[in-house]
């Protein structure tokens, strides 16, 4: 008699992260090894996160994936690399409740189905690839009972999307570029947890939720090939900034933090302009937000808010505390009233948080 089909499922939820010292440029395209270290802050999963369910069943005859309800191809190298790396680390699974037993060697033959949802715009410069691949790797590792810790998993998530390695931790996180040719030391470490600097308030101003024209992958490839500023940045600028940023975070020095964050975002967008053909991720509304924050910070004498923009027009605004956040919202509402015809259409308010395992 044929064995009754069975299914085992795991669901995980992972927040996105926003870099305050940016990763832009790879020295190895396949392994996804960066040209510089980067530092990010992980957001609250209640606001911007990916939820991924992975299932394995004796009745599945191929690996399949649905993203935001639409089936997508898993044939790309990045998905294949993540699946292969986790499968290689799979262990025996014994689910007594469901009466399922999967031996380590069975994982080679079994297929998975993956359903993933982002609760925020996909491919619009709010790091959907970061939350997406971190969540995928984390969920697969749980499904297959892989014993690796989050740092080891970060080196696998990195092979899905570079920025994903930083979403395996909450708080402030550093992606160490590493030296090894096989990429084993290119992984994320937590600098401080989400409680360390909990007066910070992060506000995301969604300027435009449309998919960007140039993906991060293509954009940074073009920058590596054509931008001299990128070379200077990676070698001469970022190493010093990383040290200063770590110090600013440890000592909760908002003035240095804001100065470094804004300068690094501006230099990253300058690299995009220095690329041939030039890449324009920010738009007029983004520029107006920068002017508004710069003017306010100068008038106060000391920075109240830091701004940073990833590969898209949407602003990530980090306020020193709740008072500054309240004032910032008032200013944004004044400059971009809801009835105006600018394309700023929502604010998402949140603070930092840690990865939640919903499995
Ligand atoms: P973003 O700025 O949103 O990170 P990218 O261009 O870096 O934009 O990456 C977008 C790509 O990331 C998508 O086309 C898709 O391949 C992948 N991605 C986004 N969300 C997910 C998800 N939840 N699970 C797996 N991959 C995802
Ligand atoms: C501007 O991680 O999306 O957000 O590694 O090619 O998937 P791939 O690129 P991705 O690039 C992120 C670039 C950035 C800066 C950052 O997150 O550090
Ligand atoms: Co991305």
Automatic annotation (TrEMBL):
Catalytically driven reaction(s): (R)-5-diphosphomevalonate + ATP = isopentenyl diphosphate + ADP + phosphate + CO2
Gene Ontology molecular function terms on file: ATP binding; diphosphomevalonate decarboxylase activity
Family that this chain belongs to: Belongs to the diphosphomevalonate decarboxylase family.
Record InterPro entries: GHMP_kinase_C_sf, Mev_decarb, Mev_diP_decarb, MVD-like_N, Mvd1_C, Ribosomal_Su5_D2-typ_SF, Ribsml_uS5_D2-typ_fold_subgr
SUPFAM superfamilies, A to Z: GHMP Kinase, C-terminal domain (SSF55060), Ribosomal protein S5 domain 2-like (SSF54211)
GO biological process: isopentenyl diphosphate biosynthetic process, mevalonate pathway; sterol biosynthetic process
Protein name, UniProt field: Diphosphomevalonate decarboxylase
Function, in words: Performs the first committed step in the biosynthesis of isoprene-containing compounds such as sterols and terpenoids.
Chief subcellular location: other
Keywords from the named record: ATP-binding, Lipid biosynthesis, Lipid metabolism, Lyase, Nucleotide-binding, Peroxisome, Steroid biosynthesis, Steroid metabolism, Sterol biosynthesis, Sterol metabolism
Diphosphomevalonate decarboxylase-like N-terminal domain ranges (all copies): 15-188
Entry's EC annotation: 4.1.1.33
Record's subcellular location: Peroxisome
Pfam families per the UniProt record, alphabetical: MDD_C (PF18376), MVD-like_N (PF22700)
Every Mvd1 C-terminal domain range: 202-359
């Amino acid at each position: 008699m044929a064995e009754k089909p069975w299914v085992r499922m795991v669901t995980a939820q992972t927040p996105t992260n926003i870099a305050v010292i940016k990763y832009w440029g790879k020295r190895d395209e396949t392994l996804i090894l960066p040209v510089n270290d980067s530092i990010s802050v992980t957001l609250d999963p209640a606001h911007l996160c990916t939820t991924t369910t992975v299932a394995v069943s004796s009745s599945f005859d191929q690996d399949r994936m649905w993203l935001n309800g639409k089936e997508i191809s898993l044939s790309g190298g990045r998905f294949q690399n993540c699946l292969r790396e986790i499968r290689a680390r799979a262990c025996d699974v014994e689910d007594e409740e469901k009466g399922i037993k999967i031996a380590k060697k069975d994982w080679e033959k079994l297929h998975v189905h993956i359903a993933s949802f982002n609760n925020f715009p996909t491919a619009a410069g709010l790091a959907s690839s970061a939350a997406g691949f971190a969540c995928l790797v984390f969920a697969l590792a749980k499904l297959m009972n892989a014993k690796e810790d989050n740092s080891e998993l970060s080196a696998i998530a990195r092979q899905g999307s570079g920025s994903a390695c930083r979403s395996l931790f909450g708080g402030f996180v550093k992606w160490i570029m590493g030296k090894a040719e096989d990429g084993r030391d290119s992984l994320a470490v937590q600098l401080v947890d989400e409680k360390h600097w909990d007066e910070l308030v992060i506000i995301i101003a969604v300027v435009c939720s449309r998919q960007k024209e140039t993906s991060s992958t293509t954009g940074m490839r073009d920058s590596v090939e054509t931008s001299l500023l990128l070379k200077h940045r990676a070698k001469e600028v970022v190493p010093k900034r990383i040290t200063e940023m770590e110090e600013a975070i440890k000592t909760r020095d908002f003035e240095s933090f804001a100065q470094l964050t804004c300068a690094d975002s501006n230099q990253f967008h300058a690299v995009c302009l220095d690329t041939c053909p030039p890449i324009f991720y920010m738009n007029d509304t983004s520029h107006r937000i920068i002017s508004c924050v710069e003017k306010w910070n100068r008038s106060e004498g000391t920075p109240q808010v830091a701004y940073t923009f990833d590969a898209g027009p949407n602003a990530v605004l980090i306020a020193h505390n709740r008072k500054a956040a309240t004032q910032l919202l008032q200013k944004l509402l004044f400059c971009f009233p809801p009835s105006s015809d600018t394309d700023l259409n929502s604010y998402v308010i949140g603070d930092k948080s840690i990865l939640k395992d919903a499995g």
